[in-house]
Amino acid sequence: MSARLLVMGAGSAGAENLIRSLRRADSSLVLLGCNDDRFVVRHSAADARDVVPPPGSPRFVPALSRLIRESRVDLVIPTIDRHVQALSDARVDFRGRVFLPAARVIALCRDKYRLTTALIRHGVRAPATYPVREPDGVDEIFARLGRPSRVWCRPRTGTCARGGAAVSTPEEARRWMEVWQTMQGVPLSAFTIAEYLPGREILCQSVWRRGRMVLANTFERLAYFGADNIPSGVTSLSSLAKTVVEPGVVEVCRAAITAVAPGSSGAFSVDIKEDADGRPHVTEINAGRFFMAMTAFDRVLKHNIALTYVRLALGKRVDFGDAYDAIDDYYMVRDMDTEPGVFHADEFFDDGHDASGAAQFTVRPVESARS
To answer: Can you give the residue ranges of every domain in the chain?
Structure first.
């Protein structure tokens, strides 16, 4: 498929994972990259690299429009929420060059409180969530939640679990929010307090065309980057994740997107957290983009989700029959300054000798996609 794609955020982890996935899937694609940081974009493996004004700048739309025209770009791909919002705001200028859900859907999904309220109203499981309006209201929220031993306190907007933490008492919640207000300028009124869900964290990545789920895959997040240096111990940046087969999770995600984004097209990445009984709840929907690292799994899945997104965006017909593409027990291992590695569980315990007395393993990286 001959096409010229412009990947935003070039040089960052999310963009480079996407570029690698697309390059493996179709060598005929021309992969261009842009970033508002000239140092980061220089690190990109894109076929060409351009510096653009930051999203939200009055110069952003004219500069990107000129780049699209001069580089003959067929499709612009966002990799973070800031890109999604900027492209959505100027979608009239970029008509035919973006593949995004409706602006109202993007706005709804960015506000975690509005989203969970909408999901619950439509009968989709989501954690009970209340907005914090004043310091004294925190005690009332704890009472509404049944005075549990832990609740989840987080801002209603933002990414990478910024400002989120499990807290045990109203006073602890107030102290947590005061720290963010003092150190980061996040007002107390920006926070919510929600039911704490102690189970597994499952990620569901999907692409849609006119209200139909075309392809979806699922992963479990097992460990986080820099958890020791973060008071909450939680981010959305996976250092270790694995593929899982969870058709029930996919059905919850299908129901959630159908409920809040009927008729939508584009990418939807859904965060799921299980309760103590193992029931999945939708905690977040990233509308318009993929997860930062999960396209690394494209090499072992039957269908490449990044390429599927491109084909749908360019008007190609795609129909896999069963939209759910799942395979069990492939692990993604990530660290700073390295390309993510993807290995099957069996490869961690193959052979060798460990002088420390612990189990030794030889890791063989996966080279090609599953047939």
So the answer is: 4-98, 128-195, 201-349
